[in-house]
Amino acid sequence: xxxxxxxxxxxxxxxxxxxxxxxxxxxxxxxxxxxxxxxxxxxxxxxxxxxxxxxxxxxxxxxxxxxxxxxxxxxxxxxxxxxxxxxxxxxxxxxxxxxxxxxxxxxxxxxxxxxxxxxxxxxxxxxxxxxxxxxxxxxxxxxxxxxxxxxxxxxxxxxxxxxxxxxxxxxxxxxxxxxxxxxxxxxxxxxxxxxxxxxx
Length: 200
What we know:
This is V-type ATP synthase subunit D. By secondary structure, the protein is an alpha+beta fold.
């Protein structure tokens, strides 16, 4: 960047910069607050899902102790038939949202399998749904964190760098202009005194 010109034109330009920058700061701060609130909500939902997973796991351990002896593939009992994700716009950031999720239980022989498999399939459906919601929430949280970081950087750039720099430039220019004006007055007085001291 070139040297700062200490004149009225530059003073006006720096003044306009400060006004423009100060218009951005409240909008960026509001955006940052909205992103923070959305992040807190997403984190709370994640904690709720984690607790739900712990609860399901505890139920399975309590009700289905015989699961450890099961020879089949429990992980193949449930599958996702349909999932619909949509994007929602939150202050310029596109976030994923789970609109619908359809799970199906893969068919199995009722006569050739254990009687408790129905209960296991229902619990597995819950687990798959919770884990799918968690994946979407994790992606949402990642995007919110990125957006929050960028917004905070921009806010800091305006608030802590650009505005103070422009204000410092304004002070320098005003001091230089005031000094130049005083020097002009002093020169004028000296010149006047010299003219008066000359013999007529």
